[in-house]
Amino acid sequence: MKSLFKTVATGFLLCGLYLNSAVLVASEIADDSGWQAWPIVGEASLSWGFWTIYDSQLATPDGQYLGSAGPLALKITYRRDIDGEDLLDATGDQWEHLGYQLSEYQPWVKELGTVFPNVKKGDQLIYTLNNGVGIFYFRENRGVPKVVGKTSSSDMADAFSAIWLSPDTSYPNLRLALIGKK
User: Fold this and answer.
1) Which tens digit of pLDDT belongs to each residue from 135-156?
2) Where is the signal peptide (predicted)?
């Protein structure tokens, strides 16, 4: 009987430790920076031919773009349905364009596979960057933004924002509009 009690007590203790660590992980990802109230620095739309793919906005705490290190919030509102795999492929293509090596960005793409959903027209992906930590939010058409992931390293966090904010981006006019220079 004593051994059964000890086993049950140990099980409760381990379960409590597991639940406590899950709460810690969730609180690490939770963002309380108030990014939703930040003023917009700039706005831009990405079009391909006759189709507008998405509208984007860059926001910062004071409405000024001071560099890609942040703090910043990049909001992308999709104007078309796009498969999550297509988002991953496009992200990898952009990192390749920026000069990242496959061995460097392939693990990041794999990691984002757990973050990027299939998006529908009106859905929004939001990326916040602050102190080398990137947090991803997903907002279904006019819903409440929900945290869906966090970058595993500051290198990945910087690389993700570089897709839009690097001077070497594939879309320099979009970048200029986002940072308030156009």
Assistant:
1) 999 999 888 999 999 999 999 9
2) 1-21
